[in-house]
Amino acid sequence: MYGKGLKPLSIATVVMVALSLSLVFFYAPLDGDQGFIQKIFYLHVPLAIVALVGFVAGGAFAILHLRTNDRKWDAYSYVSIHLSVIFGVAVLITGAIWAKASWGHWWVWNEPTLVSFLIVFLLYATYYPFRYAIEDRDRQARYASVFAVTAGAFVPLNFMAVRMAQSLVHPRTFATAEGGMPGEMMLTFLCSLVAMGLLWTTLVKFELTAKSASGQVKRLRRALDAPAAGGSSRIAPEVS
Amino acid sequence: MTPSRTAFAAILAKDLRSELRTLQSLPAMALFAVTTFVIFRFGLDRTSLSGSLASGVLWATLLFAAVLGINRLFVSEREEGGFDAIRLAPIDRSVLFAAKVAALLVYLGTLQLITVPIFAIFFLDDAAGLGPLVVVLLLTDLGLAATGTLISSMAVNSRARDLLVPLVLLPLSVPLMIAATGATEPLLALGGPSYHRFGTWLMVLGLYDLIFGLVGYAVFDFLLED
């Protein structure tokens, strides 16, 4: 069921990622201040935006799970958070590389956006031990949803608090006094954003499909009285 | 159906009475805090503190001491069957959340009533900042009580209960600590308290309290279903 539309979505993602990468390297102009290293911006910022939207989407799916009590939404919430955490690792690494290149240090504490992202990432990293600590499947799903809702509300609040605590040294890419970035850069950026969004969606769909397939195999094996192959994950929700 | 106010008062009175008779959380929290002050004295090698260092030491200690109490908040409910009793009782389940937040507020308030004066005696040159600090303490306690109650009620039903509270609560309380230390720092500054951005930080604390109070109140129902 989840596999439907996976192929066109995958093709669209590959095309879009290829297009945005070629725009990044061949079309977007070199930045006057930072030169070539500024191009990591087209990877770093879209990844961060998609990861944060994914975290909030995980919270929204969790609300649906709590309201309808349908286990499907718990799987959606789990997969969204799972992939956003993976994207989050990439955001922190690309952020560190960019910081090293443009400020000379791998980590810059008075840079509010990166620090906020780290805090959000640390909170969501506890999602796995949290799920792992609860054995009963129903209760695990329900508690995980409560966690996802709470953490989803935490994301904007945290960004506000960290930003207020610090001076602004982050490049304000969209609203500067000189009127923001040139059109070519903006177009490339938007293309990258769409590409990363598609990549995230495809991976979410892919993981859900894989979970649903292995759930079906397990049910068939049970029907045949065959022993289950391999151990199943204790924290990932099962999808029917 | 029992009116919520009666149920709230009954649960809160039960909690406070059992804490008063067993004294299982508060003395440990206070002792932990005072010992931590002593460790900071040697760790930082300072005999007096001011400004950001003072507010950092104070809040780190209070936060970790609070974690001790939050860990034990629902232990009696779990071990003595209190959850079942609440589920059987004809009351609104959210009342348990409100009563536990109130009980935790009382614990944290008492803890600070004991440890903050000790902190002032140990480290502060002048205690003029302690008056306005009360407002910061109250607002931060409210936020800690809301998130702490929520996390504690989940952790107590898990396998790794003592591990889960610090693990999840610490990242969740980062914005709270940013605002609390931001407001406390100028109050404890060398040469008398000042009120640099005091109102802004109080607003952040209030916003945190409001959001997590509402979230906790809204989702607590789902934690009691079984």
Question: Could you explain the architecture of this structure?
Answer:
The complex is a heterodimer of chains A (240) and B (226). Chain A has helices spanning 6-27, 41-68, 71-103, 112-125, 127-132, 137-165, 183-223. Chain A is an all-alpha fold. Chain A has a domain at 39-167 and 181-208. In chain A, helix 2 (41-68) runs antiparallel to helix 3 (71-103). The longest helix of chain A is centred in the last third of the chain and has 41 residues, at 183-223. The N and C termini of chain A lie close together (9 Å). Residues 175-179 of chain A have low confidence and may be disordered. Chain B has 226 residues and is mostly helical. Chain B has one domain (4-224). Chain B is 80% helix and 0% strand. Chain B is built from ten helices and no strands. In chain B, helix 3 (51-71) runs antiparallel to helix 6 (94-123) and helix 3 runs parallel beside helix 7. The two termini of chain B are 21 Å apart. The model of chain B has no long low-confidence stretch (mean pLDDT 91).
Characteristics of this structure?
heterodimer, A: about 240 residues, mainly alpha, B: about 230 residues, 10 helices, about 80% helix, about 0% strand, globular
